[in-house]
Amino acid sequence: MIQVPASFDIQGHRGCRGLLPENTIAAFTKALLMGVTTLEFDLVISKDKQVVVSHDTFFHHEITTMIDGADVTINNERSFNLYEMNYADIKEIDVGMKVHPRFKSQLKVPAVKPLFKELIATAEKISSKIYYNGEIKSTIDGDNIDHPNVALFCDLVVAEVKKAHITDRFTLQSFDTRVLEYMHDRYPEIKLSYLVETEGSLAKHLQALTFTPAIYSPDYKLLNQKEINAAHKLGMKVIPWTVNTKEEIIRLIEQRVDGIITDYPDLFF
């Protein structure tokens, strides 16, 4: 068991992707029962404006088994666009039984992409103290093609958060600074996390925003002690992703990060 500070945030990445199929009810349930403090996941929008839990805006070839036997490949996967499908059709397609080429130790279970509200309902039955960290997946090129415009996307997500009464336990994270700016202006009551995957100093990254977010969440390989200290001085928490070895977890804890996003939350327990 890894010793962590009392306030340390253990976030199960896409539930617990290293152990069970990503972003599925099975993975979230396992992570909760294991003892994570926060469920981390991704959100997309269906054609009928349902908020769906999915990392990709399409059915990715690595995890999908189409109901009609169609072969999803790297060349045609983007033709299975979730924003062009009603949820009734999305939920018929399995994303839990195909062996993942990068997570071969995953327990395979029949699973579908759940609705955000289904994730919340499941989690709340297990723990009313769990926190949520949901990512809005959006790009300028994808606007109104792979997802709605930023305003509608954010509004749909926040509506589900408020309906479930989890505003004080929900963080919205995004790489898309347009999302963060809109949320900051429209929904200041919701905590924001700035996802970063490109090299550069903290100061340089923050130049892309007009405000200081509550959380700085970079690829862990981009972090060093100086950047962690600088973020803390600005009042931000530092929660890197995706940290999948005990050695890296321990090193980052020693550098005083505030939490860690991992595919293997079992490393902590």
Describe the protein's architecture and organization.
This protein is an alpha/beta fold and 269 residues long. The chain is built from 8 helices and 9 strands. Strands 1, 2, 3, 4, 5, 6, 7, 8 and 9 form a 9-stranded mixed sheet that branches. Strand 4, helix 4 (150-163) and strand 5 form a beta-alpha-beta unit. Helix 1 (25-34) packs parallel to helix 3 (116-126). The chain is globular. It starts with 8 loop residues before the first strand and ends in a 7-residue tail after the last strand.
**SSE succession:** EHEEHHEHEHEHEHEHE
Radius of gyration equals 18 Å
Instruction: Tell me what portion of residues adopts beta-strand conformation.
Output: 15-25%
Largest sheet entry: 9 strands, mixed
Q: What structural class do helix, strand and pairing data support?
A: alpha/beta
